[in-house]
Design a protein that fits this description.
The protein contains one helix and eight strands, in the order βββββββαβ. It is mainly β.
């Protein structure tokens, strides 16, 4: 997927997927940032991450990151005008298994 600076992939604010993992990585070896919060109360449809649990990580461009089931996340975030990424996930993950938080 090709992403523009300032626009999150998929347009989501802070999603989690309660049934699947995801593994994003940059194409071309460029560093990027991802914000995450731990899974909480996956069975509770109203559960959202606490602001104080959100962490940001600088991801080296030669690494992929596996997000565990239920991990809240936002990104990729980067300084370049555009970057390319791949994301190992099911074809319909963002349709059938996406919950958006307001954190």
């Amino acid at each position: 997927m090709r992403c523009r600076r300032g626009r999150l992939a998929g347009g989501a604010v802070f999603p989690c997927h309660r049934s699947v993992t995801q593994t994003p990585a940059s194409v071309g070896g460029f560093d990027w940032v991802m914000t995450v919060a731990p899974p909480i109360a996956l069975e509770d449809p109203d559960a959202e991450p606490r602001l104080e649990d959100i962490r940001a990580f600088l991801i080296p461009g030669d690494l992929a990151v596996m997000l565990h089931v239920g991990t809240w996340h936002a990104g990729p975030l980067f300084d370049a005008e555009e970057m390319s990424f791949f994301n190992l996930e099911l074809a319909d993950t963002n349709i059938v298994d996406q919950r958006i938080g307001t954190a």
